[in-house]
Structures are given as C-alpha cells and as structure tokens.
Write a structure and sequence with these properties.
By secondary structure, the chain is of the alpha/beta class. It is built from four helices and seven strands, in the order ααββββαβαββ. The longest helix is centred in the N-terminal third of the chain and has 17 residues.
C-alpha cells in the first residue's frame, strides 16, 4: 500500500489574503467621513412662522434658535442674550465663511429676535437669515 505524502506548502495556497480588501474598506470609510455633511440642530423645538417667499441657503455654519419661552439656544446649549455674541465668535472660528440662520418660534418676542440678530452681526457674521416654513 502506497503512502500519500501531504506537504505543508499546499495548505498555504488555500488561504485568502484579505489585506487588500481591508485597505479598500478603510479608504472608502475615510472618503465617506470627509465628504459627509452633518445636520446641525439647535437643541430645542421651534414652531417656525409661515412665509410666502422662502429661499434655501446652501451653507449654514451657525444655527441659533429662540423658542416660545424666549430661551436662546446655540449649538444645543441654552445661553443668555449677553452670551450670544461670544458663543457665535467661538463657533465662527470653526467655519468663517458661512452664514447664520435664526429659528424663531412664532410665539417668541420680536424684540428678542432683533436683539439676537444684532448680537450675531456684532460677532462678525455678515449675513443672517430667519428660518420659516413655506406653503409650497
């Protein structure tokens, strides 16, 4: 009876090399992280007023909200009116070319909205918009 000889080198040929696959997966992961845009949230729910005319703003770097209890929210943090300018300056360092959008509840005081817009402009933001809902 003849004996069969098994060589150890034959077992190495059957292994699958997954290193190139992992390289591709990590490159795709980096690509999606770099190209993704993150949704900005204010930290409070705001019932925005209706408007007949509305335009979409392409680059929003700063989002400020005023709710129906006249509380001011910047970057998911409640701030006082005196702190708005300093908070906006800090956030402005991250994205200096964007503009600001103020979400104001329809039951909030208009005077507070004007004060917040002025504080944002004092912080160096040239373009400030007010978020509304559109019928169309």
């Amino acid at each position: 009876m003849a004996r069969r000889q098994f060589s150890k080198s034959g077992a190495d040929d059957d292994d699958v090399n997954v290193t190139p696959l992992l390289d591709i997966v990590f490159i795709m992961l980096i690509f999606f992280i770099v190209t993704s845009t993150f949704i900005k949230e204010t930290g409070t729910d705001v019932l925005r007023p209706d408007a007949l005319t509305a335009a979409k703003i392409p680059l929003i770097s700063l989002l400020v909200a005023i709710n129906d209890q006249d509380e001011i929210w910047v970057n998911r943090e409640q701030v006082a009116l005196d702190e708005v300018e300093f908070k906006v300056r800090d956030l402005r360092r991250e994205t200096p070319n964007g503009n600001a959008v103020v979400q104001v509840d329809q039951d909030a005081r208009s005077e507070l909205m004007l004060d917040v817009i002025q504080k944002i402009k004092d912080a160096g933001v040239d373009e400030v918009s007010i978020a509304t809902t559109s019928d169309s």
